[in-house]
Amino acid sequence: MSEVSIDTPGAISIAPNRYALCIEYQGTHYRGWQIQSEGVRSVQETLEKALSVVANEPVHVVCAGRTDACVNATYQIIHFDTSVTRSERAWVMGTNTNLPEDIAVKWAMPVADAFHARFSAQQRRYRYVILSAPVKPALMAKGVTWTYKELDIERMNEAAQYLIGEHNFNSYRAVNCQAHSPVRHVKHLKIYRSGQLIVIDVAANAFLHHMVRNFAGVLMEIGCGEAEPIWARQVLEAQDRRQGGVTAPPYGLYFVDVHYPEEFALPKSELGPYFLTAAD
Questions:
Q1: DSSP-assigned letters across all residues of 224-240
Q2: DSSP 161-210
Q3: Residue of 101, 32, 20 whose CA lies nearest to 73
Q4: b/e sequence 90-118, b meaning 16+ C-beta within 10 Å
Q5: Which residues are catalytic?
Q6: Region of residue 217 (phi > 0: left; psi between -120 and 50: alpha; otherwise: beta)
Q7: 105 vs 76, 108, 197, CA distance in Å?
Q8: Ramachandran angles phi, psi of 49, nearest 5°
Q9: How far apart are CA 105 and CA 90, in angstroms?
């Protein structure tokens, strides 16, 4: 509920309501999450326009983690402040009515002022989905990354062990990454099969620009036998992006989870994408 506050004699202002929303989107037709130059489609701008219609006032949102062009999300968390009060159903159904078919609000809830979608997050999680098959896919052409090469997930998991823990990931971030520090703590990195698909599942306190795609590029080269598992550690220790191999395509990359302190009581992620048969 909004509260009336008096800042100066004779002036009455309304303290804003803060809401958290869970957003799912297919990134194929967007140049990433963040608002960019005029005429360039972004998920953020599209969502803000839809929310502003429901609020009947301008709405500006903050997300848990920015995603690149063509990257998808099944559990992107955002928050925003507004002077109006709407039901949770109104935020979900009303916003979805004003969104294109490739973006959807999954749930909405009021949160305390202390909640911040980005700064309250303790851990983020991505899944990179690969189809290793002789022939390219048609139905999931932009939903997975395809390779005709056969991948050995045992070799990939062996290499992944070198990347777990707190490290300087300078070799695994984009040259134009703007993060102040290349140090991140990877808490989980596992490669497994889900039907015909291969999944790289990685969680960390935070990620650098292109970090997951650079992991995938190195692990795929190791998986197909073009490099040995130790190469993952050699790239890490070089602290030089030029030693890091190819950046894997954005297709097949999904932002699937964010952890927050229990006090905020946000609904848990279902750990998509839905077409995976092994989600743990």
A1: TTSS-THHHHHHHHHT-
A2: GGG-EEEE-GGGS-TT---S--EEEEEEEEEEEETTEEEEEEEES---TT
A3: 32
A4: ebbebbeeebeeebebbebbebeeebbbe
A5: 68
A6: alpha
A7: 10, 8, 27
A8: -65, -45
A9: 11
Q: What is the pLDDT along the chain (280 residues), one digit of tens a residue?
A: 444 444 444 444 456 899 999 999 999 999 999 888 777 899 999 999 999 999 999 999 999 999 999 999 999 999 999 999 999 999 999 999 999 999 999 999 999 999 999 999 999 999 999 999 999 999 888 999 999 999 999 999 999 999 999 999 999 999 888 899 999 999 999 999 998 899 999 999 999 999 999 999 999 999 999 999 999 999 999 999 988 888 999 999 999 999 999 999 999 999 989 888 754 5
Provide CB contacts within 8 A for 181, sequence distance 6+. none
* Nearest one of 55, 73, 180, 63 to 119, comparing CA atoms: 63
Name the nearest CA neighbour of 81 among 113, 49, 47, 106: 113
- 8 Å CB contact between 153 and 223: yes
Q: Is the pTM of this model over 0.85?
A: yes
Positive or negative torsion for Cα 77, 78, 83, 88: negative
Say if CB 159 and CB 189 are below 8 A apart.
no
The tokens of 235 are what?
């790239």
Q: Which two tokens stand for residue 213?
A: 């795609």
3-state secondary structure of 279: coil
Cα–Cα dist 248/219, whole Å? 10
Which residue from 185, 171, 183 is spatially nearest to 235, judged by alpha carbons? 171
